[in-house]
Design brief:
This protein is an alpha/beta fold. The protein has 21 helices and 27 strands. α1 crosses α3 and α14 packs parallel to α15. Bound molecules: the ligand C=C(O[C@@H]1C=C(C(=O)O)C=C[C@H]1O)C(=O)O. The site of the ligand C=C(O[C@@H]1C=C(C(=O)O)C=C[C@H]1O)C(=O)O has 11 residues, from α1, α2 and α3. The ligand C=C(O[C@@H]1C=C(C(=O)O)C=C[C@H]1O)C(=O)O binds next to α1, α2 and α3.
Length: 662
């Protein structure tokens, strides 16, 4: 074996390469600012996810040829792109607000050098290539005061943290200030245990920290119950105390970066309860700013609606009507007016957009108080991902859009990436659950209420937990009949599911049904899907016989995205008529593969209705497969509705349910 070259020599080579890499990264940054200049002229959006996907796919392919792992390449470039996007945003924002362009900003932040607020301020100024004049403050009020009096240009206030949530005191100071929010910045907060060099965890008796890190690290501190906690006004003060301490039995909670400013050593890292621990800061200044339309913008409002019932809902409906997305809603008490709340809203829109202007006008009419705190560039850059095929082939051309994500690569609501646990839906004794699948029987209307009652009694004895009523439009005196049907169903403790075949069925169905069932023929009806999404009742969406499973999932997403989280999917088979045999008659086939792919794709319950595809006498042979594939429920059809169920049919139904439950 040949002798490797001396370690020093190899390290020198690595150092030289790292220098080259940094120089290249700096060059790339400069070029991305040239891109921003072109986008300023063409008024193009900063973000171009198509370009990012192409770039990632090509780099993954080239990286693979050089032996580099795809995930490694992607995560490196996600950070590079995030930096590039944020730099371009800062550049264009500066261009649109020339009076903010100065060689130096005085930044007011909480605590001293090394506090998280200090790190956020440093990051903000560095991104804008301006020097930072430090203005450490003892409280949030002092920060506001420093900016209001003109001693500081900008104030940095932490507004929320991924572990401990919203920071109430900051919302409270915002109620009374004349300052405007002009920016936001998010920093990664990695809490560490910082000690004087040479000390170790066994020596530590006292921990100094600000209350926020203490709450964000509650789990770690709970496991080390012997540690005495001492609250400090900021993380910087905690670090200073440890630095000044004569004994080595004290520690501070803070960032490794901050600790190094106090010559402290980080002996334990990642103390926060949440793995990803980030704090978002807002930046306040005396004068509000304009956000060019190419930048993703956020507007923050505060409003008081008065104590009328439903007043907040009315206000939020205004946003919905103008298609405005609210990314945050907070409420805080109003000092001096008990039981009244001030609401804080972050809206993902530019204040100068027509939808925002119109919504504000309407809100002014229905609120007691409303004020815009500011409009500023949104700094949340969602990373672009590649789907499996793009990763494998290294190309994005002619690839279908990744199904389970939206344009911004957010997982879709039905997907397991969005929610990892199965959605449990229960209604009386009916439960959608693969261990004990729900048993539902369809009764075709019209039916005489007294025949209905007899049938329901038999069906209850067979073990069904719900009755599905189909054909509302065929029933005479339908409302009266529904009252009686519902009475019988309640008497036997059976859930009432009503099929919606026409838009006009919705009102009655929503009034009398415990669960609504959207007929497959209406699966593409966006208006009905949207209306179902606003209800508080569970909704079953049936797959159209001509539609693929993706289309069914997309339909469910429409319902979910309106707020209704109780959505169930129903696989009722597909039309196998290919058109080749010129035979127009429907041939529906039970799509077991569809059932598998639905169960794999979603956290929502999936039920199956084999009755369009399989003769009643044959259904029993499918039950083991249906159980194995973990269907959460089964729908069967009753053959007729003019008289009591005949004994043969009763015994068939009993057999089916017996094999379902044994
Ligand atoms: C640099 C650009 O702007 C953004 C940043 C990109 C990058 O850093 O590679 C790519 C696409 C855009 O989202 C560009 O449009 O080329």
């Amino acid at each position: 074996m040949s002798k490797p070259q001396p370690l020093n020599h190899t390290r020198e080579q690595i150092t030289a390469l790292d220098n080259d890499l940094l120089a290249l990264l700096a060059k790339r940054r400069e070029l991305s600012l040239d891109v921003a200049r072109s986008k300023e002229v063409d008024v193009r959006p900063i973000r171009d996810t198509k370009r990012e996907k192409e770039l990632l796919a090509r780099l993954v392919k080239q990286g693979r040829e050089k032996g580099l792992d795809a995930h490694y390449v992607i995560s490196l470039y996600q950070s590079i792109i995030e930096d590039s996007v944020l730099n371009q945003q800062a550049f264009l924002h500066g261009r649109a607000n020339p009076d903010t362009q100065k060689p130096q900003y005085t930044a007011a932040y909480l605590g001293a050098k090394g506090s998280y607020s200090y790190l956020a301020a440093t990051r903000y100024c560095a991104r804008r290539q301006v020097d930072m004049q430090e203005f450490g403050c003892q409280s949030f009020d002092a920060i506001i005061q420093a900016v209001e009096s003109g001693q500081a240009d900008y104030g940095f206030l932490p507004i929320e943290n991924t572990s401990s949530g919203s920071i109430n005191e900051v919302y409270d100071v915002l109620q009374h200030t004349s300052l405007a929010i002009v920016g936001e910045t998010t920093i990664e907060v990695e809490h560490c245990l910082l000690v004087q060099s040479g000390s170790n965890i066994n020596h530590i008796k006292t921990v100094y920290a600000h209350p926020q890190p203490i709450s964000q690290c509650s789990r770690y501190l709970g496991l080390h119950g012997q540690l005495k906690l001492e609250y400090c006004a900021s993380s910087a003060e905690a670090m200073e105390k440890v630095k000044q301490s004569k004994t080595a039995d004290v520690a501070a909670i803070g960032s490794a970066e901050g600790g190094s400013l106090y010559q402290l050593e980080a002996i334990e890292k990642g103390l926060a309860n949440q793995k990803i621990n980030q704090s978002r800061f807002i930046v306040v200044a005396q004068k509000s700013v304009d956000v060019p339309e190419q930048l993703p913008a956020k507007s923050t409002l505060i409003m008081a609606t008065g104590q009328k019932p439903g007043a907040l809902v009315d206000a939020l409906s205004v946003l919905k009507a103008h298609n405005l997305n609210m990314s945050k809603l907070e409420s805080r008490p109003i000092a001096g007016t008990p039981w009244e709340e001030m609401f804080y809203l972050d809206i993902e829109a530019n204040l100068s957009s027509s939808s925002m202007t119109a919504a504000l006008k309407e809100l002014e009419k229905i609120t007691r108080f409303i004020k815009v705190l500011g409009c500023y560039p949104s700094e949340s850059v969602k990373p672009t991902h590649l789907d499996h095929q793009q990763l494998m082939l290294g190309s994005t051309s002619e690839q279908p859009e990744r199904l389970a994500t939206t344009e911004n690569s957010q997982p879709l609501r039905y997907s397991k990436a969005y929610k990892t646990t199965h959605t449990l839906i229960k209604c009386g004794q009916l439960e959608f659950n693969a261990e004990q699948p729900g048993a539902i029987i369809q009764i075709q209307l019209p039916i005489e209420p007294n025949v209905f009652e007899q049938q329901v009694k038999t069906l209850k004895e067979s073990g069904f937990q719900a009755v599905l009523l189909r054909g509302l439009h065929l029933q005479q005196d339908v409302e009266n009949a529904l009252v009686q049907f519902k009475k019988s169903l309640d008497h036997f403790n059976l859930a009432c599911i009503i099929v919606i075949e026409y838009g006009s069925d919705l009102t009655l169905a929503a009034h009398y049904g415990d669960i609504l069932f959207l007929d497959g023929a209406q699966m593409f009806n966006q208006s009905l899907l949207t209306q179902l999404g606003t209800l508080l009742l569970p909704v079953i969406v049936e797959r159209n016989h001509m539609a693929n499973t993706e289309a069914l999932l997309t339909a469910s997403n429409t319902v979910l995205s309106q707020g209704n989280q109780q959505v169930i999917l129903c696989e009722s088979g597909i039309n196998m008529n290919t058109g080749i045999n010129m035979n127009n008659s429907e041939h529906i086939s039970l799509d077991l593969a569809g059932l598998v792919s639905l169960k794999n794709a979603t956290h929502l319950p999936v039920i199956t209705n084999p009755c369009y595809a399989v003769e009643m006498t044959q259904i029993n042979t499918y039950i083991p497969a249906i159980k194995n594939l973990r269907a959460d429920g089964l729908v069967l059809h009753l053959s007729q509705s003019t008289q009591a169920i005949n004994p043969d049919e009763v015994s068939q139904l009993n057999d089916i349910l017996r094999s379902l439950y044994h």
